[in-house]
Design brief:
Layout lengths: L1 E7 L6 H12 L5 E7 L6 H11 L3 E6 L5 H11 L4 E4 L11 H9 L4 E5 L7 H19 L11 E4 H4 L12 H7 L4 E5 L15 H19 L3 H29 L9 H32 L7 E5 L1
Parallel strand pairs: 1-2, 1-4, 2-3, 5-7
Antiparallel strand pairs: 3-8, 4-6, 5-6
Helix pairs in contact: 5-8, 9-10
Amino acid sequence: MLSIVVPFYNEEGNVESLYKKIKVVIQNYASYEMIFVDDGSADQTPVILEAIAKSDPCVKVIQFAKNYGQTAAMMAGIEAASHDIIVSLDGDNQNDPADIPMLLSYLNEGYDVVSGWRVHRKDNRFLRTLPSKIANKIISKVSGVSLHDYGCSLKAYKRDIIKHVRLYGEMHRFIPIYASWFGGKVKEVPVNHYPRTEGTSKYGINRIFKVVLDLIVVKFLQKYINKPIYIMGMFGLICLGFSFLSLLVALYWKFFDHTPLIVTPLPMLSTTLFVLGIMSILLGLLAEVMSRTYYESQDKKPYHIKKIIN
């Protein structure tokens, strides 16, 4: 019935306590499993996870050969899940497993994705909370799916709505957007959030730029994956327009102002704008499409699993 997915990266001080909290909450369910994904930790996290798996057959452990990032770890856990309901949360002990039954109750009401909202977030206000609020407003505006907290990992999903989703980059936070594309009903509910007491945060200010770039990709996939010629053609026409305009100005100067073409940068500027525009932006978008074709057509994964326990 229930699969709990938790990615860990250098969280040796949080693994055992989080496992015990989850166990207390879900042990009354008829059928459940816990899937712990070690994202290439360099501390004692894999050793602790392996010990837990040996003592509890309901725990599956997936160990990555190296650090691939939270999205890859989340994707591996979701793909390994064997039950119809999947709940994800962070391995830093800041999410509250006691909120899981509340999330499941909304799934029973007919929602396909229930996303947590850390109303009283216990993170650094200027380095984490404020940039997150700004990013959430931008994501909601661009995607059309209005959520207050895309970054909260505490979410519950119906398996059918996410079984075809493929995640890359930092895109695990965008699962509600993908779900809405497939006609899924998304609900956001307030959840508890606690300050970190063990280990250090793995998130830096540079993650904001990664999220923004991933959002551009998501928007492109939403609007242009089946008709890429629209965005590529539009950009090409704009470049051609500026190129033609620059050439007209250069010719005007030559014939009416007697300015030789060799002394004006406009001919070179029009050519450079055209080439640079086409090469940098359109090839970037084409590469996104080609990467997905490469992985999905051959059923390849963007990570390598070193070991699976249970």
